[in-house]
Amino acid sequence: MAFSKDFRWGVATASYQIEGGAHEADKGLNVWDVGSATPGRVFEGHSGDVGCDHYHKFREDVALMKELGIKAYRFSVNWARLIPAGTGRISEDGKRFYTELLEALKEADIEPWMTLFHWDYPYELYLRGGWLNPESPKWFEAYATVCAELFGDLCDKFILINEPQVFLGEGHKTGGHAPFLKLSDGDVMRCAHNVLLACGRAEKAIRATVKRPVQIGTAQAFWLSIPERAEDYELAKKDSFDCHRNFGSVNYFTDPLIFGKYPDEFRAWQEESGFSYPESDMEIIKSQIDFYGVNTYSGDYVTQKEGKLVRVVPPMTVPKTDMRWNVYPDSLYYGPKFLYERYHLPIVMTENGVAISEWKDLNGEIKDYSRIDFIKRYLRAFARAAEEVEVAGYFYWSFIDNFEWAEGTSKKFGLVHIDYGTLERTPKESAWFYKKVIETNGEEIFK
Ligand code: GCO
Predict the structure, then answer these.
(1) CA-wise closest residue to 245 among 194, 197, 303, 184
(2) With 0-12 CB in 10 A as exposed, 13-18 as middle and 19+ as buried, what is 358?
């Protein structure tokens, strides 16, 4: 048996990447609505204004998920669709949309996994200082409380924040993602601290609001160091959690959330960056995390020569995805092991998938055999990890081709193809393969 009998098989999406409906009803703007309208920010001027139009076509999409045998659906709430100004008044239309989506999922017997924040930060709150504003944790707590109040009867799996590594690293440090800021390390640390305070407040608020057991977890971006040789295991694990003076580390965020303290490896960098915080904050940040959600696509092999760590330059033989990420299935063996050994929490692969340069053939089909091969290779590695540590679920990224941030719609990750002209959905060969994987609880990957 590759995976446990209650292993969750799902697909993942995110609000800004698929919903469209950017100006529907009284929805508020978010930093990606504004960002994608700014020339030069997104590939060929693409935007999520219409996207996959999931806002209007969610019933069709849920029906297609049902047909594909999907058991769980990870999606995110567009904060400013629900609370247009980010705080205060709730939009009746936003409430209606997410309630109807959740009801459709229930009807289809598909378990909802709700991500509260997947980068589409309310523009009104950005104008008030965004994550730098010391009030920002309370803004998020209030929003999470609204989600718990409105949707807690229909959803009991919550992911607090998707990939702080990316929306802080790219959105607040390098300027490659919305809101395209280039802050100092100290200011990004202050933002990160407010994000952690926001998570800690939201976790407690959700449990206080939803009058039934809920599961709350993370969705961290983990680009790990992979051991080249068996004897490189400890070196690779240490390097995966070391301070590389950037915001790409997972433990920078999940040690505070789970242990109530920042990792010691980062203290010198924090001090040099002029970042300090009251120790009492750590009590607010420390949370009860029920599952360790992680998004892993690849990593870097490392080894040691003459006692020094060496990063292995990928040989030309290694296949690359359309994101130019190396196809390194071992990342789904070592990553879950490293994380479980540190946190001892069930590991949920909240994202894993592959972008391929592809289009419909002359018969109107997409025979994406390399995506099938990718899924087989990565899930075989994940199955090996499952023999050694507790793995609880896998969400393929993504259900449908969608808006890949600064790359626009040029990168195709989906199991389902979308025609952006007609909005027609077409399941790819991989969608029917994934259906068999789910039906056999993973055994299909070994054929
Ligand atoms: C991420 C985000 C997704 C991306 C996906 C492909 O992990 O970067 O969660 O929104 O679209 O990972 O890059």
Answers:
(1) 184
(2) middle
The predicted structure's pLDDT at residue 1:
67
- Take atom 6 of ligand 1 and give the residue whose Cα is closest: 404
CATH code assigned to 8-446: 3.20.20.80
Ligand 1 in contact with 221 (CB < 6 A)? yes
Residue 2: is its pLDDT beyond 90? no
Based on the residue annotation, tell me whether 390 is a catalytic residue of this protein: no
- What CA–CA distance (Å, rounded) separates 199 from 300? 29
How far apart, in Å, are the Cα atoms of 199 and each of 56, 137, 173, 219?
30, 8, 21, 12
Q: Mean pLDDT for the chain?
A: 98
Q: Distances from the Cα of 254 to the Cαs of 39, 234, 317, in angstroms?
A: 36, 20, 35
Which residue has tokens 């690849």? Answer: 298
Q: In this structure, what are the phi and psi dihedrals at residue 78, rounded to the nearest 5 degrees?
A: -80, 100
Please report the sign of the dihedral spanned by the C-alpha atoms of residue 181, residue 88, residue 216, residue 12. negative
Contact 401, 409 (CB under 8 A): yes
- Tell me which of 19, 163, 170, 404 is the catalytic residue: 163
* Domain segments of the chain as ranges: 8-446
Quickly list DSSP for 386-413. HTTS-EEEEEEE-SB----GGGGGGS--
Amino acid at 172: H
Strands (DSSP E) contained in 222-342 are 224-227, 292-295, 299-305, 308-311
Residue-level pLDDT at 366? 98
Rounded Cα distance between 389 and 332, Å, is: 12
Please tell me the pTM assigned to this model.
Answer: 0.98
- 2 neighbors 443 (Cβ within 8 angstroms): yes
Q: Which residues on adjacent β-strands are paired with residue 59?
A: none
Q: Tell which one of 404, 409, 415 to mutate to probe ligand 1, the residue whose CB is within 8 A of the most ligand atoms.
A: 404
To the query of whether residue 228 is one of the catalytic residues in this protein, the response is no
Q: Which residues contact 109 (CB under 8 A, 6 or more apart)?
A: 66
Ligand 1 geometric centre to CA of 119 (Å)? 10
H/E segment holding residue 55? helix 54-67
Query: Following CA atoms 15, 366, 104, 217 in sequence, which dihedral angle do they give, to the nearest 10 degrees?
Result: -50
